[in-house]
């Protein structure tokens, strides 16, 4: 059986009439950038999440970038984050002029280790002005936010949540994205809530910060032709907002399907010599990715591919070892947990439209090949 890693067309076919009607309304309106369709989605998303404000922007990376700028990041300011993440997390810090400062991750949740963060802050260099923490909720699992927020408050730092992979995940019953100063979401097509192009959202409880981000996304304009601050072009377009409004009504259901599929994987793979994902007591995982670990990752992946099963690796090289960030001065061995994961993680097919028989086929193949 051929098993695709992700088949987005299945999702489209399932809700095709609704999507086509929503897009047609936008096309017939003649209003394609910002406007009432975007405003309606911002309001709906904020209500669903429990945020005071939601501001649609051009991408998840831009969401982080604008949140960092709104946080007052200046050239050279230190921004703490993890190396076990997609490069765009760190790109956003660079866009804002910040200096990425990495800390290692928890070995079970694969998210920022509060103890590693505390160690980094205690040993911080007086030559670096630490300004913010970008917390990545990875693979659909929440980071342990309480100790991170407490450390941030102690050291006077802003907390920015990267929720690109965890839309709908919760921490102690509260949706991630509304715990720190800013929550930043990606609507890239593969995400749990995905557009049919790029898109992102910044959420906050602060009236002032929301107004700042709204100005930053549109050249610093407060009103038409009245530019208050230097800004950027990072606007969510109306067609994507219409698509996202349509999909938002399904998101909780789709996330529950992901959780059921993860449970099925867990049952089928529990006796195998692989490390399965965990769900910490404080978290409700939404399985943007189902990521297991095995020391024979590359060999297993090759053999699964030979049997028609697509997999992926998130991520094969930690950011601190990427050539683009060599100037930061980190070496192999700097973050051992992140580096171990890069050699062992393997993402299996999982989405609301992955079929049960496909999951069974993947698990059976692993049983035979692992």
Give an overview of the whole structure.
- With 370 residues, this protein is of the alpha/beta class.
- Helices cover 40% and strands 15% of the residues.
- The chain folds into two domains: 235 residues, Type I PLP-dependent aspartate aminotransferase-like (Major domain) (Aspartate Aminotransferase, domain 2); 119 residues, Aspartate Aminotransferase, domain 1.
- A seven-stranded mixed sheet has the order 1-9-8-5-4-2-3, with helices on both faces. A three-stranded antiparallel sheet has the order 7-6-12, with no helix packed on it.
- Helix 3 runs parallel beside helix 9, helix 4 runs parallel beside helix 5 and helix 10 runs parallel beside helix 13.
- The two termini are 18 Å apart.
In short:
The chain has 370 residues and is an alpha/beta fold. It has helices at 8-14, 16-29, 35-49, 60-70, 87-95, 114-122, 145-155, 207-216, 238-248, 251-269, 297-306, 336-344, 356-369, and strands at residues 53-57, 78-82, 99-103, 130-136, 158-162, 170-171, 174-175, 182-186, 200-204, 221-223, 226-227, 283-284, 290-293, 345-348.
């Amino acid at each position: 059986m051929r098993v695709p890693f992700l088949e987005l067309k299945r999702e489209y076919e399932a809700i095709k009439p609704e999507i086509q009607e929503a897009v047609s309304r936008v096309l017939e309106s003649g209003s394609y950038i910002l406007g009432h369709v975007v405003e309606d989605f911002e309001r709906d998303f904020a209500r669903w999440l429990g945020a005071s404000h939601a501001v649609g922007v051009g991408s998840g990376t831009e969401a982080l970038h604008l949140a960092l700028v709104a946080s007052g990041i200046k050239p050279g300011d230190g921004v703490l984050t993890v190396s076990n993440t997609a490069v765009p997390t760190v790109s956003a810090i660079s866009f804002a002029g910040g200096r990425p400062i990495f800390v290692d991750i928890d070995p079970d949740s694969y998210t920022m280790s509060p103890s590693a963060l505390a160690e980094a802050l205690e040993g911080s260099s007086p030559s670096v002005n630490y300004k913010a923490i970008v917390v990545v909720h990875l693979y659909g699992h929440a980071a342990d936010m309480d100790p991170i927020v407490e450390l941030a408050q102690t050291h006077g730092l802003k907390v920015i949540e990267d929720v690109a992979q965890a839309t709908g995940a919760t921490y102690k019953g509260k949706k991630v994205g509304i715990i720190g100063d800013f929550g930043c979401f990606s609507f890239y097509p593969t995400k749990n809530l995905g557009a049919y192009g790029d898109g992102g959202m910044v959420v906050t409880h602060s009236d002032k910060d929301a107004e700042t981000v709204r100005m930053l996304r549109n050249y610093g304009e407060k009103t038409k032709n009245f530019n208050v601050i230097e800004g950027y072009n990072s606007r969510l377009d109306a067609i994507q907002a219409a698509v996202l409004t349509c999909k938002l009504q399904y998101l909780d259901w789709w996330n529950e399907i992901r959780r059921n599929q993860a449970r099925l994987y867990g049952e089928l793979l529990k006796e195998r010599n692989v490390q399965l994902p965990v769900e910490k007591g404080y978290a409700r995982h939404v399985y943007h990715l189902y990521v297991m670990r095995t020391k024979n990752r590359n060999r297993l992946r090759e053999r699964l591919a030979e049997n028609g099963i697509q997999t992926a690796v998130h991520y094969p090289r930690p950011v601190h070892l990427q050539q683009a960030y060599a100037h930061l001065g980190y070496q192999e061995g700097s973050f051992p947990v992140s580096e171990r994961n890069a050699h062992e993680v393997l993402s299996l097919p999982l989405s609301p439209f992955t079929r049960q028989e496909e999951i069974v086929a993947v698990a059976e193949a692993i049983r035979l090949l692992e």
